[in-house]
Amino acid sequence: MSIGNILSKSSDWLRGDGPHHHIVVTSRIRLARNLAGVAFPGRAKAAERVDVLEKIRPKVESLPEMVDAVSLACQDLSPVDKLLLVERHLISREHAAKKAGAAVVMNRRQNLSIMINEEDHLRMQSIRSGLQLRAAFKAINKVDSELEQQLDYAFDPNLGYLTACPTNVGTGMRASAMVHVPGLVLSEQINQIVQAVNKIGLAVRGLYGEGTEALGNLFQVSNQTTLGEKEEEIIDRLHKVILEIINHEQNARQVLLHNKPNTLLDHVGRSYGTLRHAYSMNSNEALNHLSFAKLACDLGFYGDAQRHAIDELFIETQPAHLQKGSQQRLATDERDVLRAEIIRSKMASFAPPDLEGVLVREKEARGGAKKEPPHGSGAGEEPSEGNLF
Amino acid sequence: MLCDVCKAQTASVFLTQIVDGKIQKVNLCDPCSKEKGVTDPTGFALADMLFGMGAAQQIGANIGSEGVRCPQCGFTQAEFKKTGRLGCSVCYVTFAEPLKELLKGMHKGLRHIGKCPERLRLTQERDSALRQFHDDLRAAVVEEKYEEAAALRDKIRALELSGGVKGD
Prior knowledge:
The complex is a heterodimer of chains A (389) and B (168).
Chain A: H1 3-8, E1 24-33, H2 46-61, E2 70-73, H3 79-87, H4 93-96, E3 103-106, E4 112-116, E5 122-129, H5 133-148, E6 155-156, E7 160-161, E8 173-180, H6 182-186, H7 190-199, E9 202-205, E10 218-223, H8 231-259, H9 261-277, H10 283-298, H11 304-316, H12 319-326, H13 332-346, H14 355-369
Antiparallel strand pairs in A: 1-5, 1-8, 2-3, 3-4, 4-5, 6-7, 8-10, 9-10
Helix pairs in contact in A: 3-12, 8-9, 9-10, 10-11, 11-13
Chain B: E1 13-19, E2 22-28, H1 30-36, H2 46-51, H3 77-83, H4 91-94, H5 96-106, H6 118-142, H7 146-163
Antiparallel strand pairs in B: 1-2
Helix pairs in contact in B: 6-7
């Protein structure tokens, strides 16, 4: 299978059908492994890295999970294709810049990708839609167990899996969930949440991992520590924290709707207007407006088809996806025009969200709440997803 | 050791960070660490945040004795300090001492309790069973329980034959 074939299909996780997918976009588990007796990729000479690649690649390609896989050497990829893989979270930005010996093997559904000679000899990743950390771990753990029978890993009984960076030593595992939390951002609770999460050994990062900005109200929450705890314990802790974040986000949306309906509806309305009518839009602006379009879906303004269209736009409007789609290299301003055009056409059939109706119902609910909560949806009660009105 | 911030309470949180190749250490008491929100060692330049630029205690020279070089890959401490990465798996032995301090500030514990490669686990289990049998055998001989000793000797032989790990 060629890169063109695989990239013409959208990633499996983009279908957005996992549990809690309204707030949790993806769950990912990454395992770092190295071969015993060979220098880590950062230290190894080009020839050694090529040796490692030749040793690992056939084993990875012959995994039962990798039937129909695509196997690509980084130096054979064009800059646009590499960036495209980064935008789909299939390789890291660092890996895209690597040359001799660096490769990636990924399955057709794009929920499993294995980087060879990234910072470690092996970086294996499993990605799922919604909150499915345990399922993602099960999948990648199976791959790891299959590979360890054929490859001698660098493992120390005391320190566990040895990695190039001491921050990964032990389990070599990074579990992360990407959450969409416009409610926490609008109600200015996000910093509090980030601090609280940091205090229990978890990290919060932007859309594309370490050192990247939080755009489109998207954040990645992941474990910071890898030594002294079992994989399952780390995952359980993260899972619980993500459930808490979902809860806080839902409450924040409910409270905004009750106390500051105009603020919330203003964001949704402006984003709708901009997305439908703009003729030039940069990537960051698109992400931020799409975030509120996604929120509009969660608030019940749109159905599943529209939700899927919005989710796809998050990826399709990224720079490399735009260039790939147009089959040519585009200057920044040309990209901005094309981006706006794609969004306008995809959202052409979207009716304006009935914001006025929300205000009316909200006023009625408030009037009624003084006597008796209408339809059992009184304040304080946990809202159900997609049915906040 | 007293907290570097309040200088009153005993420090219980020890953070180590490599910034631009320089190792910085900060010792905090529990309340101060909570107040600063510092349990994420990579989230910010910790020493700079706590004390202002350049005021951090630089302990670059203290990380092991100068000039240690990994016998496997030739990596030096200077390179480790510069990149924050190790050169190969043997570096974990070469730089074990300074690493211990670093890992203490980074992780929940200093001992891996998670997954272990199956082949290695089996070898380790066999080795530990063998050690136990040898101990029991010595005890049986001392106590002149020769029947028991003979049974143990057979068990040891069987186990050694199954994997040939003796003296591994």
